[in-house]
Amino acid sequence: MADDSSSSYIRMVQHLIEKCILHNMNKEECMEALEKHANIKPVITSTELEKENRAFFESYARDREERINMEKDQQRIQQMLADLASSTTPDDDQDDD
After folding, report:
1. Cα–Cα distance between 56 and 46 in angstroms, integer?
2. What stretch or stretches form a coiled coil here (predicted)?
3. Residue 3 and residue 89: Cα distance in Å, rounded?
4. How do residues 2-60 score in pLDDT, each as one tens digit?
């Protein structure tokens, strides 16, 4: 019976970790959220994250970082384009005068 209870608890922790991943949380954010909202100790969350599939989470962390960097790059490009558009006056487009 205790075995059923602990396996049920582990499944619940895994389910909550999956929800964190869907919200693009990193390992630290996931541990903090589960501790705050589900009263799950960070060591348990960390152990589950590492035990289940360490390579997956390492890849996930790399991919997440790349996405964040791409978003920052896109924001910089959009800001540069906005700055360029606001610095262009109608006189800049008229060469025939």
Report:
1. 14
2. none
3. 73
4. 667 888 888 888 889 889 888 888 888 888 999 999 999 988 888 877 776 677 777 77
Q: Let me know: does 83 contact 73? Beta carbons within 8 Å.
A: no
Say which residues have a Cβ less than 8 Å from residue 60's Cβ, sequence separation at least 6: 21
Beta carbons of 63 and 41 less than 8 angstroms apart = no
Report how far residue 48's alpha carbon sits from residue 45's, in angstroms, rounded to the nearest whole number. 5
Residues 59 and 40: their CA atoms lie apart, in Å, by 24
Between helix 27-38 and helix 42-87 the angle, nearest 10°, is 120
Q: pTM of this prediction? A: 0.54
Q: Name the token pair of 7.
A: 């396996």
Q: Which string of DSSP letters, residue by residue, matches 16-29?
A: HHHHHHHTT--HHH
3-state helix, strand, coil in the chain (%, to 5): 85, 0, 15
pLDDT of 93 > 60? The answer is no
